[in-house]
Design goal:
UDP N-Acetylglucosamine Acyltransferase, domain 1, Trimer_LpxA-like_sf, mainly beta, Hexapep, Hexapeptide_acetyltransf, Acyltransferase
């Protein structure tokens, strides 16, 4: 399901299985070679989101507990994946099953993202961690201190 004013560059690939749904909001820009997979549950991309090239987003992962089965034959772990409004996803990022990005999140290039991230955060790395938080009252990014 696609909203209004969705811009898609060449090479987009989407896969849905067993009732999976990919929902894309309004005014979304999707870079070249985007790949999205939704199995059973939802994969939601909010409105006003920019996704750079070569990004992969999924709502499922393979288990690897059966030694006599190929990886693709292993059972799946399926969890809703959600990117809220006004996010920016950097080039080559991987957004894994069960991830929730709050509004106005920025994901650094080549990051591997899994987890729940609050609004107005900048995250990067493999695995991705919150590096900065946007202070709306001061309109500036502030470095997050390591614990």
């Amino acid at each position: 399901m696609f909203g209004d004013k969705v811009r898609i560059y060449p090479g987009m690939r989407t896969e849905t299985q067993n009732g999976g749904k990919i929902i894309i909001g309004d005014n979304v820009s999707i870079g070249q070679n985007f790949h999205a997979v939704a199995v059973q549950n939802k994969l939601k991309i909010g409105s006003n989101v920019t996704i750079s090239g070569n990004v992969f987003i999924s709502n499922c992962d393979h288990t690897f507990n059966e030694e006599n089965l190929l990886a693709l034959e292993q059972p799946l772990i399926v969890k809703d994946t959600c990117i809220e409004d006004y996010c920016f996803i950097g080039y080559g990022a991987v957004i894994l099953a069960g991830t929730h990005l709050g509004k106005h999140c920025v994901v650094g290039a080549n990051s591997v993202v899994r987890g729940d991230f609050p609004d107005n955060t900048l995250l990067a790395g493999s695995p991705a961690k919150v590096l900065k938080k946007f202070e709306t009252e001061n309109k500036k990014w502030v470095k997050v201190q390591e614990v």
